[in-house]
Specification:
about 325 residues; Rossmann fold; UDP-galactose 4-epimerase, domain 1; 2 domains; seven-stranded parallel sheet; three-stranded mixed sheet; 12 helices; about 45% helix; about 15% strand; binds nicotinamide-adenine-dinucleotide
Length: about 325
Amino acid sequence: MNKLLVTGGAGFIGSEFVRQAVHKGYTVDVVDSISYAGDKARLKAAGAGVKFHKINITQAAAVNAVFHAIRPDKVVHFAAETHVDRSILDGQVFLKTNILGTQILLEAARAHGVKKFVHISTDEVYGDVAEGSSVESSPFLPNSPYSVSKASADQLVSAYARTYKLPVNIVRASNNYGPWQYPEKLIPVVIYKALNNEKVPVYAKGLNVREWLFVADCCHGVMAVLEKGRVGEAYNISSGIHRRNIDVVKAILKALKRPQSLIEFVADRPGHDFRYSISCEKARQELGYVPAYDFERGLAETVAWYSDNRAWLDLKVKYLKDYWTKVYKKA
Ligand SMILES: NC(=O)c1ccc[n+]([C@@H]2O[C@H](COP(=O)([O-])OP(=O)(O)OC[C@H]3O[C@@H](n4cnc5c(N)ncnc54)[C@H](O)[C@@H]3O)[C@@H](O)[C@H]2O)c1
């Protein structure tokens, strides 16, 4: 039962999960199309034992062939289009990869008798939570094309569990941060801009609240669900650490000894959810999941990693400058 197929394993969270899985003695095959956000360099630290398959999950024949060749015991499904702002510019690829791609994987898992299919979903499926925290049975109220695509995939997974008795788990994770995150997401954008003494764009007044989860903690949660999750159940995985965007930005500027005058408020993201918060009490009670990182330690490690890996950061940002002009507009 230790042969894992990990989709999206060349991505930010998937690659951390692969490193942890290899460390625990799993045999890992990665399926990833290497989209603009994917990078095999993230897998170097996982060692040569990880087999890589460059496959787009929307291609059913290729997905079936790889399941046939590997015969995985379990599947952990991270592959997705993941950036809300891009989904607002053009949602179509989100629907294809996140919904159709998930359905193709579910079919392959069913056809090949996979013993567990763990789907990685997001706190964004619950939508805005003005106060308190969403639990696993809270209603879905997704508001962006990204979160709608993730909510659809999440419900497809549940449908396969009920209709075909596919043994599944769903993980709904809160906002991840840490080393290797593609610099289109808030924390690495701010680190890049601050390192280069450029203006740091902040949507509206920066008051939106997110629940920040260090990527290693997220993957420990996913591993706990994979190994101990009750079949058919969804588990929220989060940190209990809530921060306004403006406070995250100020903490990064402080860590890098940059002035707060670098902050530039820009026009808000259309449809911007104000606050996400999920309770991971179920994972704590059933699986013993407890996040290890506080925000200060996680942010310090993240800032240090990007400072030490400027070449990787610069390489990625080279292709982001045009994109930034589309999403960061004058207030
Ligand atoms: N980053 C977060 O804060 C967060 C929070 C909750 C849930 N999630 C979910 O976790 C998962 C991983 O997120 P991430 O931040 O690591 O994303 P990421 O964008 O860094 O990585 C996504 C990976 O999927 C691959 N991919 C994209 N389209 C593909 C396709 N059609 N076929 C095969 N591979 C494809 C990419 O090449 C990339 O390696 C996603 O499902 C995301 O929705 C992310």
